[in-house]
Amino acid sequence: MINSISCTILDQDGKKIPDSNFSWNETRSEGELTFSLKLFQACTLQAIWVDVYFSSPISKWRHIDYTWINPNSKTLVANVHSPKILKLESNDHVVPKRNLGCWQYQSSHHLRWFFWHPMLSPTMVYDSKDMRHFLKSKEFSDETKIQNGLYFSQGKVQEWARTPNGFLPTICFTDHSDFDTIQNLKVQRDFFKKNNIKTTKGFFLYDFSHKGQTASYQSKGGKAELDAWKKDGHELAYHALSQSYRGEISEAEFMNFEAPLPLAPIDTYIDHGFHPYNFTKQKLGDWEKWYAHVYEKGIRRIWTYVDAGEANFFNLNQLNPRYYTLRHMTQSSRFAQQYGIKRNWKTSVRNYLMYGVSEEILQKGKLLGGDFRNLLRSKSIQSLGRFILNSGRFLMFGLKPENIKHQFSKSKRIFEFNRFGAVFFEAPNQKDTKIDAFQSLAVRDYDIAFSKDSLERFIREKGLVIAHTYFAYSGANHEGRLFKNGQGEFRPEAKEAFERVGRLIKTGHIWNPTLRELHSFHQTFHQIEYTKISSGLKVKNFEGIVRDVK
Known about the structure:
The chain is α/β, with parallel strands linked by helices. Helix 5 (326-338) runs antiparallel to helix 6 (345-356). The strands form 5 sheets. Strands 2-3-15-9-8-5-6 form a 7-stranded antiparallel β-sheet, with no helix packed on it. Strands 17-18-19-20-21-23-24 form a 7-stranded parallel beta barrel. Strands 1, 4, 7, 10, 11 and 14 form a 6-stranded antiparallel β-sheet that branches. The protein is built from 13 helices and 27 strands. The model has no long low-confidence stretch (mean pLDDT 93). Strand 25 (529-533) and strand 26 form a beta hairpin.
């Protein structure tokens, strides 16, 4: 069954740690492999994985859409949210003893099993210049143990469903409240109620804003309206605590906030802006005090401020890394043109900068965009000179041979953020708390993301999306937005798109949980195990829906 198995552990510098720092044991028997890893000392690691080399080639891979496919690409992964099943040419099914970590196909005989990698839990912070810095290593205690293994059987094998309603796709909305007013909140709520759509609704607890009429729980009419969202079945989530930041007052609010009784419990926290008390404004890797504070306040899940990508015709399913490439982004733009959907070229440039370039180029692009907007506002010689100067610097940096070569090589590569299709994961470097983080997909163009073609693909793939949305935004630069203007008038195309989603939810073709409901169900996946019986391989420790693989 197995030719060889080995474990690789990389320290924070990407070097293999000495064998004396850990123990590795493996046991093989008929139709079974067991292995265990134990660290002897606390350390900071960059990666942990196990390489398995089979004596018989891998002939079939159970894909995220619950179908058998012929494996031929390293884009094939099976994270904790998907059954890990493969079939060898010897006719043996292979499953894990415990559903932990992430499988990745390497070659016909080679399976790599990740137990830690930075992109299994994409986490970052912003520095003082709002430049992103991603966590590249994680702290592990001297009590760290990994015990797992594989079962082999030529009999039947079971698979489990990632929704409580069966083998269905999942749409979860997490809406940010940046542009909410009392007026448009009511329009949104009535619209979603009519269309059977539930959301996790971000809101501002405190009433301080530089934008004027932003809704909050303290604003006039805010309490009654947000209480009504809760009564309609939506989850309320903190979106920071106020629209704008006001120094010591905001810091005091963060230290002393409590969930209003009509909305309690509130256990989701979503960063907003660049408030200094945000999760993503703490020192990279040093979140223990922050965790302890929000955990005591009831928080059990947080947003990482990382989107897997920008929704287009192909990639609504976060679980499938295949479509998270620059090439598919370009193909989606061409597809839109074929459908007569006209979009501003600036949107493509922004998406390219967000997901297709290095952090340094992204930062320079943001600064140049700011210079351009300033030029349009002021129309002064000084702003023109600044724009020309920084345009030259941007082009000189971007046209360096090494940068051009790097960009060409990335056209078909998966965006690193979604290399493993991460959804929920333990927020890194916790000692005395248990808080999970979630990754989202930016969904701004509802005409495209919820088009008939996109949803049909999504349903075929039994996909999942945690949509990062701004329902109330009415700016012209979001051409596929929900509202036509600030008076609560819908754009017909987006209205039709949401009605399409609502019908699929009502007829049971899509599961539409709140984030709390989705997280609660996904937490059960970590307890799933397989057991070997006379007839084959059976799922255990799971109260959801299972079936025999055909």
